[in-house]
């Protein structure tokens, strides 16, 4: 990594029980907001955002992360082989929803291949695969061709049924639930897109909402569930390394919600 982070991240849950006439209900787990963090980028990259909240913070972050180098869609293939490399096997990549380690050489469109999954579904705002949101590495991940098709352009929510190579992910008629280990990753990618693309650079103004029927509108849901996932699954070493690689080797911009998880609650 470029710099050592000093993280004071904590996670706690409040255990609530309610008495009823015949006994006690099952305890309910409630996630608490991420504690403030400090990074090596606060006095440089994030200096104009530190200390702000709400729309002021969102606006500052938008200005900061919009200064990026853009890739072509064909260049994304090789970039993903680096950003999503299996830490235990340098010949493979880790597939996002499946959790499968698959050979880097198996990129393509056939059964058994992996392809480029747009976590913010490209039809939500109809930006396709053109240079810009369609090629932004911060929300593009390797995924099995068939699993990618099953996810389609569904919004994210809890619930559904398993499927082949699901890795624990679930789906139903109008939503998709990723496996537990990457729920937070998905949330932070969606929220990054909502800050990066604000409608001021010829692309749609992307925003999260609480719907699971967004279709081609430039919205993605469900925000309430994504916030829960963000709290339950804080940034991992894999996710932090990925953020660094994108910043240092490709786009020269960062996902601020990986560096500062508490900024999710500060904005939404």
TrEMBL record:
The protein here is known as Ribonuclease
Asked whether the keyword Transcription is assigned, the reply is no
Please name the InterPro entries in this protein's record.
Endonuclease-I, His-Me_finger_sf
* The keyword Nuclease belongs to this UniProt entry's keyword annotation: yes
Q: Where is this region: Disordered?
A: 152-176
One Pfam family named in its UniProt record: Endonuclease_1
Leader sequence residues: 1-31
Q: Where is the composition biased (Low complexity)?
A: 158-169
Query: What keywords does the record list, in alphabetical order?
Result: Hydrolase, Nuclease, Signal
One function term, GO molecular function aspect: hydrolase activity
